[in-house]
Amino acid sequence: MTDAELQAIGEKVVDVLRTIYDPEIPVDIYELGLIYDVHVSDELDIKILMTLTSPNCPVAESLPEEVKEKVRSVDEVNEVEVEITFDPPWTKDMMSEEAMLELGFL
């Protein structure tokens, strides 16, 4: 698999991540800055490193599972692993400009 093909699959994964919303904030998890890394292996396994807005987030159990299920729906993808980290902790500075505009921070 070429780097371009792997990158194209990574972009499809990001497109899927943009359809998942934090239930308390009307912005998708990608624009919120909750996704730290998306890695596509040569075997088309996906590893996503993400965080939550807080360790006590009400969707701490369900959101990573939703990410896993939706990313698994991408045709080319084999396995999906979602790892949650709080290092570094999420802050609103991690949001995209689009998210900040949407939430009135700009």
UniProtKB/TrEMBL annotation:
Domain MIP18 family-like, first and last residues per copy: 11-82
InterPro entries membership: Fe-S_Maturation_MIP18, FSCA_dom_sf, MIP18-like, SUF_FeS_clus_asmbl-assoc
SUPFAM superfamilies according to UniProt: Fe-S cluster assembly (FSCA) domain-like (SSF117916)
- Can you tell which superkingdom this protein's organism belongs to? Bacteria
Which Pfam family would be a valid example here?
FeS_assembly_P
Q: Which NCBIfam families match?
A: SUF_assoc
UniProt-recorded name of the protein:
FeS assembly SUF system protein
Q: Which organism is it from?
A: Owenweeksia hongkongensis (strain DSM 17368 / CIP 108786 / JCM 12287 / NRRL B-23963 / UST20020801)
